[in-house]
Each structure stands twice: as structure tokens, then as C-alpha cells.
Automatic annotation (TrEMBL):
<keyword id="KW-0472">Membrane</keyword>
<feature type="transmembrane region" description="Helical">
    <location>
        <begin position="399"/>
        <end position="421"/>
    </location>
</feature>
<keyword id="KW-0813">Transport</keyword>
<feature type="transmembrane region" description="Helical">
    <location>
        <begin position="270"/>
        <end position="291"/>
    </location>
</feature>
<feature type="transmembrane region" description="Helical">
    <location>
        <begin position="35"/>
        <end position="50"/>
    </location>
</feature>
<dbReference type="InterPro" id="IPR036259">
    <property type="entry name" value="MFS_trans_sf"/>
</dbReference>
<keyword id="KW-1133">Transmembrane helix</keyword>
<dbReference type="InterPro" id="IPR018456">
    <property type="entry name" value="PTR2_symporter_CS"/>
</dbReference>
<feature type="transmembrane region" description="Helical">
    <location>
        <begin position="114"/>
        <end position="134"/>
    </location>
</feature>
<comment type="similarity">
    <text>Belongs to the major facilitator superfamily. Proton-dependent oligopeptide transporter (POT/PTR) (TC 2.A.17) family.</text>
</comment>
<dbReference type="Pfam" id="PF00854">
    <property type="entry name" value="PTR2"/>
</dbReference>
<feature type="transmembrane region" description="Helical">
    <location>
        <begin position="237"/>
        <end position="258"/>
    </location>
</feature>
<keyword id="KW-0812">Transmembrane</keyword>
<feature type="transmembrane region" description="Helical">
    <location>
        <begin position="88"/>
        <end position="108"/>
    </location>
</feature>
<dbReference type="InterPro" id="IPR005279">
    <property type="entry name" value="Dipep/tripep_permease"/>
</dbReference>
<feature type="transmembrane region" description="Helical">
    <location>
        <begin position="506"/>
        <end position="527"/>
    </location>
</feature>
<feature type="transmembrane region" description="Helical">
    <location>
        <begin position="366"/>
        <end position="387"/>
    </location>
</feature>
Amino acid sequence: MTTPQTTSGPMPRQIGYIIGNEACERFSFYGMRNILVPFLISSVLLGYLPQGADRDAAAKDIFHTFVIGVYFFPLLGGWLADRFFGKYHTILWFSLIYCAGHACLAAFENNATGFYTGLFLIALGSGGIKPLVVSFCGDQFDQTNKSKAKVVFDAFYWIINFGSFFASLLAPLFLRHYGPAVAFGIPGILMFIATFVFWLGRKEYVNVPPTRRDPHAFFEVVKTALRARLAGEGRPGLAVAMVGVVSAVVMLLLWLLSATVSLSWWPTDFGFVITACLALGVIIALGGWGASLQLERARGLHPDAAVDGVRAVLRILIVFALVTPFWSLFDQKASTWIIQGREMVIPHASAWWPSWLIQDAAQMQALNPLLVMLLIPFNNLVLYPALRKLGFEPTALRRMGWGIAISGTSWIVAGGLQLWLDGGQEVSLAWQSVPYLLLTFGEVLVSATALEFAYSQAPQAMKGVIMALWYLTSTFGSLWVLLTNAGVRNDAVTAYIASTGMSENAFLMFFFAAFAFVAALAFGLYARRYPMQDNYRVA
């Protein structure tokens, strides 16, 4: 008779270094991110455009292109960590690139080449470490103390928002009173501190070695499944996957042709970023579908655990795909909602308004991390226990589905405020607190939950890559924003919006709300069939 293994072991003491690193890094990232749109709108970098809607749209496009990069490069960081260098060294080296990017922003505020190089380096550095810090944190736990992992994942998400709160509150003031060099320089200093704190814990970390060239890794199993032949049967999965690859190559070739010769039917706004993201999406979707059709053919050529692990990853990818509309809503709080807030009236005359602190519409973003820090303990200590007493178990997938729907509701409220503004009314900036509350509640249900979900569902050899694929949902979220922004530049779409009697901004807000509701419904239907896994490391 075996003794059941305890799950109440001690908290790993090295967690403090990881949490401290994350607090400083998040201040660094959100400090620059949350002032990027206001800076671009007023900077000489967009001096070729007149003040107004054109410059606002250009700033939004640059911002969401940057976000796409931030959440695309986790693929590179996850791959390098899993195959070659391990998580610790990959995090450390990408952090140094990250620091160099901040230095470029501070030094080249009036130089487009230097500034955009800085944005690229930050996207590369931030994206490179993004999937690894969370999974590296999870690596410090095993079966003996995994019960404490949920507490740490919640604390991890809480500290992200602790750093984000002060960054969102203070960075716009730094920009307003001290200029871009200081406003972008301070986040750079915090990133250096974050790197130093992470380095301090180097002797205490549990370092799970990289898998190197594992013959039973995810892509090896997929290749075997797609290539395998069965007597008397075709290879439908390979055909589906090849359609995806060919479609992606054709898209990229059409973009290249459109850049050199005139293709009147190719959308003029489909630059490299949009085209490359669409191509990647087609490969992932059709490649994953094709692999699922023939996956059982890999059984016997690879261990059952490896084949089952690939099946689990393919199921996770469907969950991730259905979450992408949430990010199209969430990331626009740093672009669309800031632009809306600039049209509103700051209620300085009201005694309850903290005029000594809140002086800029961009500072309303501080509500998001503040509410996260309040809602996480409220949910864990009050809401979830109350729901369980009522007989409703708030599972991870249920929380995520409801989070998407609640986020859609926030955009209905934002659209109502925009209609108010479009009607010529003076609208207090304080009203934006309502959509911020709803969006943040949705975020806690989706994003904080997904940190735990993604790590627990990923097989051990694929944790870095699966976390990278989770962050890729934000890339596609911003892709939907760029596609929508490109769509409204079409004369037919513009005419249709005009026929509704709404402004373009209001129409798009209601459009994104509807997008979220459809995604929430699809998510709920799929979640009912999803088989949960437990892939924590064995002690």
C-alpha cells in the first residue's frame, strides 16, 4: 500500500526573486506602453499628418503593430528556451535586449529610425521573456507543493498589476511635466533593476533542462502523423496542412508583389505585419486540423504519452483561438479608450475628483490594475466560495467564458458614452470608470485564470511553447483591430456606417462588443467538451 503524496509542501523561497523581477518589469513595460499613443499623437514622428482622426488612426496602428510584435516573439523565446538555452539564460539575455530598447526610446524621441528600433527591441525582449517567466515560476513547484502554485499564480498576476498601477498613474505625468526622454527613461531604469533582481536568485532556482532535440517533441509527432501512410487510405490530414502552407506562401507572395507592382484588388492596408499574421494563422489552423485527422497514425512510432500530449495541445489551441476576441477588446483600452477620454471633460471642479493627481485621460488606465488588485482577492475569498455554496463550481473554463462576455458588455457601455459625446454633450471622464470596471472584471476571469490553465494543461516538454502560443492570442487580438481599422477605410464600409447614423468610433465599439459575445458563446459550447489535464511536475 502506497502512502498518498502530500501536496502541502513549503513555498519555494526563490519565488521572491521572480515576483520582484516581475513587479519592476511590469512597471517598465506598462510605463512606456501606456504613454505610447499620447506621445505619438503629439510627436514630430507623425508630423507628416494633420492633427485629428488621421493622426489618431496612425498612432493606433503603430501601437497595435507593436503589441503584435510583443506577443509574437514569445514563439522565439519559448523555442530557444525549450530547445537550447533553458528558461533562466533565455530570460536573462532577452532582458538585456529589453533594456537596450528602452534606452533607444529615451534617446531618440525625435528620430523615427531610432525610436522605432527601440520599439522593435522592446517587443523582442519583452516578448522573448513573456512565456518563460510564468512557466519558470511554475517550474519551482512539484507535486508536493502544487497546491501553493495557484496562490503564487494569483500573486504573480497581482504583482503584475501592482507595477502596472503605478506605471499607468505616473508615466502620463512624467510625459506631461518632464517630456518623453524622462517618461521613457524611467521605465528603462526599472527594467535594469528587474534584470538585476532576477540575476540575484540564480543560485536558488530549479532549472528544468531544455529538451534539446527530443525525437518525441510536439512537432516531431505532428510530422510523423502527417507523413504516415496506411494501406488503402489517403492522407487527408496532410492535404489539409499543405493547403494551409500553400495559402500562407501565396499571401506573402501577393504582399511582395503589391509592394513592387500595382495590384488593384489587393487591400492597400494589408502590409507585411497583417499579411504575415494572417499567414501564420492559416498555418496554425489548417496545420492543427490536419494533424488531428491523422494523429493516431503516430501511435506506435512515438510513445502514447507523446501522442496524447499532442492531442492535448491541439485541444488547448482551440481554447486559445476562442480567447483572441477578448484581447481585441482589452488592448484597445490603451488606444481607443485613451482617444475617447481625450474628448471628455476632466471634472476638476468637483470636490471628489483628485485633480492634484489625475490630470490626463491616459491616467484612467490606472483603474485597470487597481481594480485587478481588488478583484482577485474578492473573487477568491468571496465570490467563488459563494458560488460553490450555491452549487455552481467556477471552473477555469467557465470563468474564462464569462470573462469574455463581461468584457463585451464593457464595450457596450463605452459605445453608449461615445454616442453621448457624438451628440455634442459634455461627458465627464469619470464615466469611463464604468467600462473599466467591467473590462477589468472580465480580464481577471480570463487572463488571471489562463496563467494557471495554460501551465497545468501543457505537457512538461512543451510548457514554454504552449505559453508562447497563449501569448500569441494577443497578437491575433491586435490583428483583428488592424483588420477592422483597415476595413473602415473602405468606401463601402464607411458608407454603411454612415447609414446607421452612428459615428465610426461608436459603430466600432458596438461591433467589438458583438464580436466578443459570439466568441463567448462559441467558447462556452466548446468548454463543455474539453477534458481537463494535470501536468504538474512530479517531485
